[in-house]
Amino acid sequence: MNRRRRETIIREIEYWKRSRLLPEQYCDYLLALYTEGDGRPRSRQRPGSLAAGLCLLLPAAALAIYFTELSFVLQTLLLSLFLSVCLLLVWRWRKERQLLHFPLIGSAWLLLMGTVAGSSYYFPGQSGALTVAVLANCAAWLAVGRLFRLHYFSLAAAVGGVLTAVIVWWQ
């Protein structure tokens, strides 16, 4: 078989594997067959380095939001940038179950930070607005937990809702 035809077949099998048109084991077998056991070097960036970058992004977000004297607009823009990076990684890793947890947790945390900061800025001293913001985050966590079948998100939503209700009742 000529080299060009073999490369086309290998690219097609890799597409099938990425798109999950065939089970991964079949695609691995076909790739081993057509590459004669050599395998193909991957040109993709390693997901572990992106996860490490995300782990560094979250403390940077906390430092930028809570420990600097930036204006509220600049803090909101930085938080929106960090949140969009996390959501982009959620979209990119939506089929890789092991890596999906990092950007989902980061997105949930950043969204909570943003809504709490926004409610404190726009409604200072009003606990009702903060309660609504926290309960809205809990509802979003419940939706994410059910969508991705992540029990810890559903549990966090339930615990957050109960704790918020208890704190509101206690006041």
Model description:
By secondary structure, the protein is an all-alpha fold. It has 7 helices and no strands. It is elongated and about 75 Å long.
Helix content: over 70%
Mean pLDDT: 83
**Silhouette:** elongated
**How many helix segments?**
7
Rg on CA atoms, Å: 22 Å
Which sequence of SSEs, written as H and E, runs from N to C?
Answer: HHHHHHH
Largest sheet: none
Model regions low in confidence, pLDDT < 50 over at least 5 residues: 41-45
Structural class: mainly alpha
Strand content: under 5%
Distance between the termini: 77 Å
In total, the number of strands is 0
Quick tags:
171 residues; mainly alpha; 7 helices; 80% helix; 0% strand
Short note summarizing the structure:
With 171 residues, this protein is an all-alpha fold.
Secondary-structure map:
Layout: H1 3-19, H2 24-34, H3 47-66, H4 72-92, H5 97-122, H6 127-148, H7 151-170
Helix pairs in contact: 1-2, 3-4, 3-5, 4-5, 5-6, 6-7
